[in-house]
Write a structure and sequence with these properties.
By secondary structure, the chain is of the alpha+beta class. The chain is 44% helix and 17% strand.
């Protein structure tokens, strides 16, 4: 368990960078210490919220907080419940509801539900996945593969096409190691395929295109540009 001060002392990053990283990880504080929920527990906690919305026939973008806290407060510790609410919803924009109702964040909920479907599987038939994924999210939400940038790999060359879990956060932080790993997984990538796995390592001076120019070799196949390892002989 670490306080922010402990983390700041052992991690080479500015306070703002550290705060951003903690937020991206979905970390939260309990008694001053930063924690991250285990995936299965977070899935269970979020399911309580989604099931309640479904049972009460509430629109996902107009969730009454008093009722939600009263009902789910019997199922989850207050700090966990508040974290789930903060993580996956925001206050309604409408002025007359802005202090009493919250709206689920569509992209976050859709992304989490997709990960829940994909994590237990090696690969998933893409068509079947899309159907199951859409059926797993609250009524009114629309799933889109763009929501999963940096989280999945889609194999469009296989028959049928497949999708698998592939999280950018699990990749090496070192840029050379990351490229080596990516090219072990797939020998060639299009820009749209590889970009989500490089964006967080890019800088103002070295954007994704610059990184690709420096560390990869570009080839054209049937009019499509692919990026390969510079050391590949293929």
């Amino acid at each position: 368990m670490y306080t922010f001060e402990h983390l700041s002392a052992i991690i080479q990053a500015s306070d703002d960078q550290l705060k951003d990283a903690l937020k991206e990880m979905g970390a939260f504080q309990i008694d001053g210490n930063w924690r991250v929920l285990e995936f299965d527990y977070e899935c269970r906690a979020l399911s309580f919220l989604l099931n309640l919305i479904d049972e009460q026939s509430w629109p996902y973008n107009t969730i009454p907080m008093d009722e939600t806290l009263n009902i789910l407060g019997e199922l989850l510790p207050p700090v966990i419940l508040q974290h789930i609410i903060d993580q996956y919803s925001t206050w309604c924009v409408s002025s007359n509801l802005s202090q009493t109702h919250r709206s689920l964040i569509e992209d976050k909920v859709c992304r989490f539900m997709a990960v829940g479907l994909l994590r237990p599987c090696d690969k998933f038939n893409l068509t079947d996945f899309k159907t199951a994924w859409q059926g797993s999210v609250p009524e009114g939400m629309t799933t889109n593969l763009k929501q999963l940038d940096g989280t999945v790999l889609v194999d469009q060359s296989s028959h049928p096409q497949t999708i698998c879990y592939f999280n950018e956060q699990d990749l090496p932080d070192d840029i050379i190691d990351r490229f080596q790993y990516l090219f072990q997984v797939r020998s060639k990538w299009t820009l749209n395929e590889i970009q989500p796995f490089l964006e967080k390592l890019s800088t103002d001076k070295l954007n994704v295109n610059n990184l690709l120019a420096k560390y990869t070799r570009a080839t054209n196949v049937d009019g499509v540009r692919f990026y390969c390892s510079k050391h590949s002989t293929k």
